Amino acid sequence: MSLVAISDLHIRHKDNRAFTEKLWPESADDWLLVAGDVAETTDDILWAMGLLAERFPTVVWVPGNHDLWTVPSDPVRLRGQARYDHLVAALRDLGVHTPEDPYPVWEGPGGPVTVAPLFLLYDHTFRPEGAATKEEALEIAYSRGVICTDEHLLHPDPLPTRDAWCRARLDYTRARLDALAPGTDTVLVNHFPLVREPTRILRYPEFAQWCGTEETADWHTRYRARAVVYGHLHIPRTIVVDGVPHIEVSLGYPREWGRRPSPPEGPRTVLPG
Question: For the chain, which domains are there?
Fold first, then answer.
C-alpha cells in the first residue's frame, strides 16, 4: 500500500498516451497523486483522469499550466477561472479529489498525513540575475529568446494578470492550510515547485520566472510537510530542503524520457519513503 505520484503525462503525444494506458496500481490500496499537465484539451484530461480513477481507489489532481490553456483544438472555449471551475466539476463527477475539496487523509504506511492538493501559479519572483522587477525579468528573457507559451494560451480571466491570479490563490490556500489542526503533518502537491532550488539547473535559467513564487519558500516547514510533490520542470529527481524531500514526478515529453538509459517505470513512491 503506497502513496504514489506522477505528473506531466502530456497525453497528446502517442507514446505518452500509451504509457498512461499501462498505468496500474501495484496494490489495490495505492493512492495516486497527479501533479498537473495531463493534457491541453478537456476531453483528453477527462479521458486520462477517468481511466486512472477506475484503477486507483483514490486519485488526487492539481492543475498544471497546460491543463488550463485555452487551445484552438478544444471545443471548450472557457478561459481562466471558468476553465478551472469546469475541470473541477467534471473531475469531481469522476470521483477525483481536487484543490477545492476537503483534504483527504492518508492512513497507510508513513501516515497519517493530510494530502493537500494545491493550485498555485507563479508571479515572476524567480527572476534572472540583474532583474529587480517582473518587467525587467521579462525583458531579459525575451532578449534571449525565452518565452513561455502561457503568455499566449493561459488566460487569467476575470483577473487582469496571471500574477494577480497567483496572489489570489496564495491567499485562498494559506487560509485553508492555516486552518488545519495544530501538529498536522502534510504531503503538499503542486504543479510548480514550492522552492526555487529545483530551477537552478534549468538549461535556460530565464524560464524560472514561469515556475513558481518566492511566497511558498517556507511552506514545507510551515505546514509540516513529510514530502512535497511537484512537476513542470521535466527533471524528475528528489532534492532535500530543510530535511524535507521535494520530489519531481514528471514523465515529460517522449523526446526527453526517450533519451534516458531506461524507460520510465511509472509513478514514484512518496510514502512510505
Answer: 3-271 (3.60.21.10)
